[in-house]
Design a protein that fits this description.
about 10% strand, about 40% helix, about 425 residues, alpha/beta
């Protein structure tokens, strides 16, 4: 039995680079509050160690997977193959990956495909539904799953008749499976029913060519005796010995539109697509390190109801030394919070030997003095390695044992001021905030 190779983790990369797990995580997500050179170094080490991000775990934390399921009737049909290629390309442009499932034009398989997609926690579904069946569509609507329908022409056919003030002859509308030819039976039925027709408009070019062959064997000449039109213009991508009149489905444009629409539908709640006004009425909160332009931060505050902001160090020189970036804009945005009316929480990741000192606590207290909307200050447990961030200086010593990460703050500001914090016997100096 071949032993399974251990997969590198964030802790492994942190231990190798000397940075904290949080810094490694943010660098691998290309966060701008981590210095560019630091990001490059961490990504290089991660690649060398064979690190692969845990997408399922990330999706549980973020609430989305950036994945779209594409459910098609017959992937052996070039029409669907071209369609899938375009969808996959457009999905990547929007930061999504696409997962393909084939139904063989069977309702039961379509149901299984939908359930399989939902089990993978996809954000949305692009579906070419099976013929004459709406149960799966009703199922998706009941669950409130964002989905977009593609590949069905009959509605457009009827709309064209309506726009021309004509009534379609229902006897001329026939359905056949897209997975296998059903033309022989269709033409036989038309002959038995004595239905006259002068042309055939097929679902796709592949079916049009099958119709051509079937008509030829019945002694009908195309186009002398019967006109024939396909749909999707596949021949523009294939070299064929004969030409076919075909309606271009503009696969590139149509599939791109599906990918654009699907993320919009993903923003729906309980199956109801929300308007911009309705979205504006949702509760809006922000978790931030504050590293963005003052103008952008102020504009964001106008639309927020709650802010959680992390401040590691107030001293500019130490902030550059331990993080690699200047904290000027961070402090400016923190002051903007203090001067505004948006309720906010300041969180301090306690890093022993780095910011767990009286100087930093006094500077933080001074920064927050007089803040009208400050709810509390939280001291968060540090989850890094024994090595100092950035490799600068000596090892600050082993991290004190405390609460595991994720179990909440060690204390609130009032606890820290009064000396009741579990992580320290000292009270935070300075005036209460």
């Amino acid at each position: 039995m071949i032993p399974q190779k251990a997969v590198a983790t964030l802790k492994d990369i942190a231990r190798q680079t000397g940075y904290s797990v949080n810094t490694v995580s943010r660098a691998l997500r290309d966060k701008e509050d981590v210095a560019h050179k630091t990001r490059e170094r961490i990504r290089r080490v991660a690649a060398e160690m064979g690190y692969i991000s845990n997408k399922p775990a990330a999706s549980l934390r973020l609430g989305y997977t950036k994945t779209i399921a594409v459910i098609l009737g017959d992937i052996s049909n070039p029409h669907f193959a071209v369609m899938m290629k375009e969808i996959e390309a457009r999905a990547r442009e929007y930061g999504y990956i696409s997962v393909l499932l084939n139904t063989n034009e069977e309702t039961a398989r379509e149901t299984d495909a939908i359930r399989a997609a939902l089990n993978q926690n996809v954000d949305g579904i692009i579906l070419c539904p099976a013929r004459q069946d709406i149960q799966n569509l009703q199922f998706l609507k009941r669950l409130g799953i964002p989905f977009v329908l593609i590949g069905r022409r009959q509605e457009g056919y009827r709309r064209a008749y309506s726009q021309a003030a004509l009534i379609p002859d229902e006897r001329l509308i026939r359905e056949i499976p897209v997975t296998s030819s059903g033309y022989e039976e269709v033409f036989a039925q038309l002959e038995r029913e004595k239905v006259h027709y002068t042309g055939v408009f097929a679902f796709s070019d592949m079916l049009a060519w099958e119709a051509w062959d079937c008509l030829r064997r019945r002694g009908v000449s195309v186009p002398q005796d019967c006109s024939l039109v396909g749909f999707d213009h596949i021949q523009s991508r294939l070299t064929l010995p004969f030409a076919l009149t075909s309606v271009s489905s503009s696969n590139c444009t149509a599939c791109g539109a599906c990918v654009r629409v699907c993320p919009v539908h993903i923003r729906r709640i309980a199956g109801v697509r929300m308007t911009s006004r309705e979205l504006a009425e949702l509760h809006r909160a922000l978790e931030t390190c504050g590293y963005c332009s003052r103008e952008l931060f102020k504009r964001a505050l106008e639309h927020l109801e709650y802010v959680m902001m992390d401040i590691k160090l107030c001293n500019p020189e130490k902030h550059i030394r331990y993080t690699g970036v200047d904290n000027k804009v961070i402090l400016q945005n923190a002051r903007a919070l203090c001067q505004g009316e948006t309720p906010f929480v300041i969180r301090i990741p306690v890093i022993p030997g780095v910011n767990d000192n009286e100087e930093n606590y006094r500077a933080t207290a001074e920064l927050l003095k007089g803040a009208r909307a400050l709810l509390r200050v939280e001291f968060l447990p540090y989850s890094g390695t024994d090595s100092q961030k950035g490799g600068a200086g000596k090892n600050p010593g082993r991290i004190r044992k405390g609460r595991p990460a994720g179990e909440g703050p060690l204390c609130t500001a009032s606890d820290r001021y009064s000396g009741r914090c579990a992580g320290s016997g000292r009270a935070l100096p300075g005036a209460g905030v």
